[in-house]
Amino acid sequence: MLRSFALIATLVPATVFAAGGDSTSAPKPSETTTTCSDGQIWDTGSQSCVDVKSDLLNDDTLYGAVREFAYAGQYDHAQAALAQMSDPKDDRVLTYMGFTTRKMGDVPGGMAFYQQAIAQNPGNILARSYMGQALVEQGNLADAKDQLSAIQEAGGKGTWAETSLSQAILTGKTYSY
């Protein structure tokens, strides 16, 4: 028991985990979730909240909003922002569609998005981590461990994707984000 705790302590940084690449910190709340409402996104150029369909928003701004909405549990707003991305088949978009779909209760639909993201980019360690965490939630540790191995083989050792999935496999607890 003590050895398991020590292993977990070495794998998990003290900071809060967040999705998005290798980040180990949550996205900082911005005006998108502190000032804007109804899924609007803060546009730094106009210094105002704009509709998600605004031409003022580029993919990077939309992606940042997706991440922030997802962290705040605003999955429907995250999906609305994802729908505005220039390439709906981009593996980054598919990964977050999988995450938000799964968190909204459609696990099979979420898994299908993860599979599409991984088919497009087998090195997408974030999609693999989210898929692995879904597998842990389903009690399928063997397949979750396969995703962990794939993350490590893709150069993901020491990343949030690896660490969060490792902890989920060890403890059975996954991240809401």
Q: How do the strands and helices of this protein lay out in sequence?
A:
Elements: H1 2-11, H2 31-34, E1 41-43, E2 48-50, H3 59-71, H4 75-82, H5 91-103, H6 107-120, H7 125-137, H8 141-153, H9 160-171
Antiparallel strand pairs: 1-2
Helix pairs in contact: 3-4, 3-5, 4-5, 5-6, 5-7, 6-7, 7-8, 7-9, 8-9
Describe this structure in words.
- The chain is mostly helical and 177 residues long.
- It has one domain: Tetratricopeptide repeat domain (Serine Threonine Protein Phosphatase 5, Tetratricopeptide repeat).
- 56% of the residues lie in helices and 3% in strands.
- The protein has 9 helices and 2 strands; from the N terminus they run H-H-E-E-H-H-H-H-H-H-H.
- It has a two-stranded antiparallel ribbon with strand order 1-2.
- Strand 1 and strand 2 (48-50) form a beta hairpin.
- Helix 7 (125-137) runs antiparallel to helix 8 and helix 8 (141-153) packs antiparallel against helix 9.
- The longest helix is centred in the middle third of the chain and has 14 residues, at 107-120.
- The relative contact order is 0.13.
What would the keywords be for this entry?
single chain; 177 residues; mainly alpha; disordered N terminus; 9 helices; two-stranded antiparallel ribbon; Serine Threonine Protein Phosphatase 5, Tetratricopeptide repeat; elongated
Globally, the shape reads elongated
The named CATH superfamily:
Tetratricopeptide repeat domain
Poorly predicted sequence stretches spanning 5 or more consecutive residues? 1-24
**Might you state the CATH topology name?**
Serine Threonine Protein Phosphatase 5, Tetratricopeptide repeat
Termini, distance in Å? Answer: 27 Å
Counting structural domains, the number is: 1
Q: Specify the CATH class.
A: Mainly Alpha
Q: Give the amount of beta strand, in percent.
A: under 5%
